[in-house]
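Long-time lurker, finally posting.

We've been working with Fatty acid hydroxylase domain-containing protein (Papaver somniferum) and I want a structural starting point before designing mutants. I don't trust myself to interpret raw outputs, so I'm hoping someone here can both generate the structure tokens and explain anything notable. Sequence follows.
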Amino acid sequence: MASKPGPLSEWPWKGLGNYKYIVLAPWVAHSVYSYVTSKDEIWERDLTSLLVFPYLLWRWIHGQIWITLARFQTARSKHRILDKGIEFEQVDRERNWDDLIILNGLIFYPMINILPGASNLPIWRTDGVVISFLIHAGPTEFLYYWLHKALHHHYLYSRYHSHHHSSIVTEPITSVVHPFAEHIMYFILFGIPMAVPVLTGTGSIAAMLLYITYVDFMNNLGHCNFELVPKWVFDVFPVLKYIMYTPSFHSLHHTQFRTNLSLFMPLYDYMYGTMDVSSDKLYETSLKGRENKVDVVHLTHPTTLESIYHLRPAIASLASSPYAPKWYLWVFWPITYGCMLLSWIWDTTFTVERHLFDDLKMQTWAIPRYSFQYFLPWQKDKINSLIEKAIVTAEEAGAKGEELNGNGELYLQRNPKLNIRIVDGSSLAVAVILNSIPQGTKEVLLRANLSKVVYAVAEKLCQKGVKVAVVSSNDLKNLKLRLSTELWSNLIFASTCTQKVWLVEAGVLTEDEQKQAPEGTHFIPVSQFPVKRARKDCVYYTTPALVIPKALENVHACENWLPRRVMSAWHVAGVVHALEGWDSHECGDKLLDVEKVWSAAVRHGFRLPIVVHSS
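Top reply, 14 upvotes:
Generated this for you. Predicted structure of Fatty acid hydroxylase domain-containing protein:
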């Protein structure tokens, strides 16, 4: 909100939360009913009211396209204007960017019936389209400039416009994030180019759609944090310098506040002396770009089909929350399955996140393969090829470390002269699991597949004199094959499940087994997938992860099902490895010194998440 919220700052439907679109339902139903029950011939029926809802839907889709493209570009582009990130606070502040769409619907539906000439509009009239854009270039741009200048007066700024300017680093949706009262003012202003053609009998459905699409397009473009308007546009058409702004032009307004006040046409800043003198220089600097250096690359991949919507470039409100299935995502099933089909043929990783930790620059690259594809034998060679290609690309980019969610010995064998360090994160995962076990624990129950991490955890516990119980004779046999004989006395076969600490893995531990556990049992995952909770009287831990320090910037998306600002141990491992400057790989069967890795992580500000009891 603004620093001193004024009257009508809150949106009237705020209390409805995610159900806010229900306020449009009566109007949508009425428009459909009126069209269907009309006694006119079908080609003579009024489409104006019926097309309002598709128009609102188009605005949402248009905005979402800009969100996705902008977030994708800011993660990888060298043309960033401000080399800074955004945080969860900004995402939360801007998550209701679609309130404007609802407001438009609630105004358009009644106005079609009230405003003379607003109903039965033709599909197209050229003169009306021309009038709309001429009025925008003249009265609307002029009036907006002075309204905007008034909003920067300390009285109005503190009560309204400061809410918008809370975002220094802007995203496309920042453009429409304003208090309710401010949007009312904007609607009156932008309503002029739509109302005049209607009142003069030259209005059309296309004129309104084109004008609003133009406003949305320019608004979104101007709030991108990367420059995308090529220089040749202004070289070929010099006059555009006065009638079309650029992202870098408007970015200066968000950093300098008192300059570059115009809407889309810098002409008015030239006329009234508010043009920022550094506008041209910033434009050229942004176009030239900066060195896109990367120190650490974390390789990941989508998990479930719906997990694509939780990636940072997708739906911002979902990406900023821990992953959980959402029933309403079935609406997007064509996109969901389209992305799945695309993943079969897409042969390049893509950048989804960019972080900064002091001077260490990190990126997260996604391999276009879902979890289920890793279990398909005929996909194995292709996935290995994608990972190897990513390692070589990271090496060429000058990265110090590459984090793999799996053993990377194969890639070292194929590329023995790598300068980059390959880190699978197992050592830190082991350290996190060991330090998550409550002090004083004498015995643990192991219900997980035997992996590199699990073998190491079992060995460390046995060395500390902690009993490790298993319910499978094969597991007991395999553990004894890997552990030295002096530790065998701490490996036991469990005939009952009385242990209060269970080391578990999703897909191995069943709900029935959870129900057999004693009250207050601690379920500690030893893999990257969380266990489905079946008890309210037990303690469930996150998958091995650490809370990140405040110095780690540009974190505004959750990593899978982890809480905000919590990063998986496998992800943190590469960061710690690079910060310490360690020269060894960690892949295959090799583990680093677990205590040394843990001490380094703590020293750099990482810590265990707070465990909350379910009851």
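Before you design anything, note these points.
The chain has a mean pLDDT of 93.
The first strand starts at residue 296 and ends at 300.
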